[in-house]
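Sequence in, structure out. Go.
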Amino acid sequence: MKLRDMTELAVRNLRESILRNSLTTLGVAVGVASLVAMLSLGVGLQQLASSRLTKSGLFDSVFVTPKLNMRGGPPSMASQQGETRLLDEDARVEISKLPNVIEVFPQVRFFSEVRFGGKPFATMVAGMPQSSKVSGAFDGMKGNFFSAESGDEAILQVEFAKELSPDTASLVGKTLSIRYAERQQLEDNSGGFSIVPKEKELHIIGVVETEPAAGFGGYGNGRLLIPLGTALSLRATQVNDLRDAVRGGPSKPTYASLTVRAKSPNNVDAIETAVKKMGFGAFSLLDASKSLRIFFSVFDLLLGIFGSLALAVATLGIVNTLVMAILERRREIGVLKALGAADSDVKRLFFVEAGVMGLMGGFGGVLFGWLIGRALTLATNIYLKRQELPTVEIASVPWWLVLGAISFAVLVSLVAGLYPASRAAKLNPVEALRYE
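Output:
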């Protein structure tokens, strides 16, 4: 029997019992829709997490720290234990010249007393580079980001802003002053420094919901954020300054840590190795990304298993439909065999019918699954907008998921058609013609 004739015959048979076959196909579509919806949710969440972490600069960054003398002595004694270099401006410039390095900026944070409305507030001030604007931490903030690298501007973390005023939005455009301790080198070249109280006025230009200055390689719970250039120009005394003074350290300022941004996460390992060879401590968060990929792989597997349960139920519907078709079409099968149709032709006929139901159910299921994903995303974004948070995409249907879902639906349908096709092929043509 030719494939064209077999296809026409299969389509005609499906149209004769259109209600039953449509319900069976709908069952396949529902199973595929549940599978696509769950997997699209897993894929969307993985893409959301990866994009957020990539934008934050964690995966393309190397965090550099000085190798401290573990005996507690000054750095000058480090030669007894191995080479220890100062993490100063010279080191920063040297690291910035490494291949595939975009920028190298120091961690600057210090305690300050903020004066606003005639009242004092103690908080941590942190310097933020201009590149942090695209990190995602400032999405949906009230106000604007820093206009320049060295502007007299400040962004408040929302919890600190609430301490200044219950109406945080009203703070944008106002002025506050910070009191801090400035480090000044002594003129006698003794290597020491003096601490001089200073005060500086800053214009509030924004309020941010998250705390972008906290976390790994961040700026340590900074609740008042200023441009990094401004933070460096203040020469504020930091924790490492006091440590160096107690240990009889160098006369020139050093950095507690540096953040090195690479062009791509693929360059992180090479930069980390090069920095360690210079005599500094270095680490990155690539291991965390590997753990994240493992987690989402297991997560997607579990979602796929649960989503396939509905498709497994749909296979029973296909088996039931085709078995009923055998009972109704015994005479037709007998005529086909009497005209010379082989057992394999009868099997292929039922396989084609099962495959058509799987194919149509696959296309419909992908469409339904996509609509479910869009509905979940829409509902989530409505909630986020009410909370004044930025919108997100929590579901994604890539092309491989579309092709995979349709292929899986056809494969499951063909497997479901194995028993009915085999049973139909085994019918005796004489007994089939006597039926009814």
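Check: The radius of gyration is 34 Å. Residues 109-237 form one domain.
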